[in-house]
Every structure is written in structure tokens, then in C-alpha cells.
Amino acid sequence: MGSIAYVVILAVMFIWIMKSNKKNQQQAQQLQDSLRPGMYVMLRDGLFGTIVDVDGENVVINFSVDGADEGCLTVGKIGVYNVIEDNASAPQTAEATGAAAPGSIEEKIRHAEQFAADEDEEASADSESEGKED
Length: 134
What we know:
By secondary structure, this protein is α+β, with helices and mostly antiparallel strands. The protein has helices spanning about 1-35, 95, 105-134; strands at about 40-45, 50-55, 60-65, 70-75, 80-85. It contains three helices and five strands, in the order H-E-E-E-E-E-H-H.
């Protein structure tokens, strides 16, 4: 009699877990399907940015600090954890998002590479000026 109760309890727990898992998957799919340019989102790793482009299963996200463009990053839609602010209904311009908003993925990659090169130049210039002060 006691073993039947354990089996029933385990079956109920298993069904409850399966339903919960299915609900979470549906919510994640709805979030991924709703992603549009202009949305301010948080990624699973804690980064925040504005979606610039949605390309199939990927999104291009612009990161800006105090209005200064910090570069773009292409991530899978699954990497988006939450929509913080939905500005996608308003017309978006490069000035409004703080993004350079280049047209193609290749241009976005070139933009990100140029940003990294500029950062490297600034870092080397800073280290040279620190060396001259000594």
C-alpha cells in the first residue's frame, strides 16, 4: 500500500515538473518571437542594450553608455533574457538609439571591429603618456 502512494506522488511530481517546463519553454519562445529593433533588453549574462537588427535566430544589440556608442554584438535570440523597455513601436533612427545602425551584418561587424581598434589605440596612447610622465 505504501509503495503505491510513493508511485502516485512521484507521478504527480513528474507531471507537475513537465507542465512547468513546457510553460517556461512557451514563454521563452514568445519572448524570442516578439523581439524587434528598438527594444531595450537584458541579456542572460547581465548586459543591457538596444536591439538594432533581428536576423533569423540572431539579434544585433547596440551597447551605449551615456549616449556614446560602445559597439554592437550579435547574439542568438535565446541569449535575450528580458525586455526592459519596448520602444519598438516608435520610429527608430540611429540618433534615437545611439546606434550607428549600419545596414548589413558585415557592416555591423566592421563597425564593431573599428570600435575595438579605436579602443586599442586609446589604450596604447594612454600607456605611452603614462610612460613619459615618469
